[in-house]
Specification:
β1 and β2 form a beta hairpin. The strands form three sheets. The protein has a six-stranded mixed beta sheet with strand order 9-8-10-7-11-13, sandwiched between helices. It has a five-stranded mixed beta sheet with strand order 4-3-5-12-6. Strands 1-2 form a two-stranded antiparallel sheet. By secondary structure, it is an alpha/beta fold. α1 runs antiparallel to α11. The protein is globular and about 60 Å long. The chain has two domains: 182 residues, 3-Layer(aba) Sandwich (D-Maltodextrin-Binding Protein, domain 2), CATH 3.40.190; 128 residues, Bacterial extracellular solute-binding protein, family 7 (D-Maltodextrin-Binding Protein, domain 2, 3-Layer(aba) Sandwich), CATH 3.40.190. The protein contains 13 helices and 13 strands.
């Protein structure tokens, strides 16, 4: 375990000591009298699926949530967290959450577009001026309430929260990137998404959609020149070994979402459901704060591996290049309202605020 954080429960002011199980699922806490409490001994144990490691701040925050829920409901509910895709890929697990065979999961923002295309607004380049602006939007239920509830009837999925998942930047094996022209001819891995392909092409690069698991070998062999992602993925997947130039284009701030089966949430008693939902803002704060710490750790590790971080980037030139994609995508009243709300928060929390 690399860090410990505190999560306040809805039932009491209780300091929880974080414990992680080596098998990849999250487990016991100290009940205050020296005895470990195993959240899997709760009357009802939910499973939460995650596709990254036990060191990730979202994993740690989910373990804390499970512990806090156990305490707040006097052992009626607990959450066991499964990292490293132990329950399957996101595409598989989201169907299981919809059916109720898995209760909860974290999921990347682009996948949400397959359920409701209006989620694209939050996945567009240069949408959020700052993490604070993004957090303000997602905490405002008047802005996100209808969108988050929009897949409950059709998919049986409730969106519990949206979380900061870093800022995506370009990295490659050839040179630092300062201007769009520096991407000319560079083959960059992108997510398997039409809008992401168009984004990289507008930015000046050659987009190569590819699964994440193939990227390291493609970079090593020269099939790819680079990719785009945040610092934590860059380091965790060892891309810093084969693409040493990391440049802060800051083109995407795509959130992750915490999802839950709608019927399972509704089956809770009113008291337990209220206690559970009262814990969600603390999970968001813990995960978001932890992610910033995780970024710093990742940068330090990548620099030790020989990576060069370049912040001398003409961000405005890249922003101008992708404007057509944004304008094409804001094409109905729902998206326009979401876009306008984001701009209000961007004015309140500009870059560097």
């Amino acid at each position: 375990m690399t860090r410990k954080k505190v999560l306040a429960t809805a039932a009491a002011a209780l300091t929880i000591t974080l414990g992680l199980a080596a098998c990849g699922s999250g487990g016991g806490i100290d009940g205050g009298d020296g005895d470990d409490i195993d959240v899997t001994s709760a009357d009802t144990v939910w499973r939460l699926a995650f596709n990254q490691t036990e060191e990730h701040p979202q994993y740690l925050a989910a373990v804390e949530l499970g512990e806090a829920l156990y305490e707040a409901t006097d052992g009626r509910y607990g959450i066991e967290v499964y990292a490293n895709e132990l329950l399957g890929t996101q595409a598989d697990v989201v169907n299981n959450v919809s059916e109720g065979s898995v209760e909860m999961m974290y999921i990347g923002g682009p996948v949400m577009e397959s359920f409701n295309e209006d989620f694209i607004v939050f996945n567009l380049p240069y949408m959020f001026a700052s993490q604070e602006a993004q957090a303000g939007v997602f905490a405002d239920t008047e802005v996100t309430g209808d969108l988050f509830a929009s897949i409950e009837e059709s998919k049986g999925i409730t969106v519990l929260a949206a979380l900061f998942a870093g800022v995506r930047n370009v990295y490659n094996a050839e040179r630092p990137v300062v201007e769009p022209e520096d991407l000319d001819g560079l083959k960059l891995r992108v997510q398997q998404s039409d809008s992401q392909v168009r984004m990289i092409e507008l930015m000046g690069g050659v987009a190569s959609p590819m699964g994440q698991g193939e990227v390291y070998t493609a970079l090593q062999s020269g099939v790819l020149d680079g990719a785009e992602n945040n610092e934590t993925v860059y380091n965790a997947l060892n891309h810093d070994e084969v693409a040493e130039y990391y440049s802060y284009t800051r083109h995407l701030m795509i959130p992750d979402y915490l999802l839950m089966n709608t019927d399972i949430l509704a089956d809770m008693s009113d008291e337990d459901r209220e206690a559970f939902q009262a814990l969600i803002p603390d999970l968001v704060e813990s995960a978001n704060t932890g992610f910033l710490e995780f970024i710093d750790e990742s940068i330090a590790a990548s620099e030790e591996a020989g990576a060069q971080f370049n912040d001398d980037v003409n961000v405005e030139a890249f922003r101008e290049r992708v404007t057509p994609l944004v304008e094409e995508s804001i094409n109905n009243p729902v998206r326009q309202d979401l876009f306008d709300a984001v701009q209000q928060y961007n004015e309140q929390f500009p870059a560097g605020s």
